[in-house]
Structures are given as C-alpha cells and as structure tokens.
Amino acid sequence: MKIIKFLVRVSPYQAGETAGFPDDVAKGYVDDKRAEYVTPAKAGKKGTEGDGNPPAGDGKDGAPSGTSEA
Prior knowledge:
Layout: E1 2-6, E2 18-21, H1 23-31, E3 35-37
Antiparallel strand pairs: 1-2, 1-3
C-alpha cells in the first residue's frame, strides 16, 4: 500500500488530493506522472497530535468550562 498525491485531476480525485493504493496501482500513476509518492512526514494529520482524538479537558471532573451543573 502506497500513499500518493495527485498532480492532475484523475476522476474521482482532484489535483492535490491524496489516496492510498496497492503498490502496482500507485506505481502506474507515478510512472505516468499523474501523481507523486507521499512520504510519511507529508502525510501527517492536520491540526492533531497523537491518536487524532481531541485533547482532554483540564483534568477536572464535572461540566466543561463555561457551563454550569444544576
């Protein structure tokens, strides 16, 4: 499995989109100069760290900040 970034529109993908394909399929797109391989550093998640879950609260039990419990 390889991750590639499309350089041109290849239906259903737009230029700039990334997708994962079996090695032989990805190689075909790259050899045809329609895509380039994406290195793991380029494939990182935007705006997240770790496992992709939002950061935990402030560690206090109860209602989230800015709300009140009745």
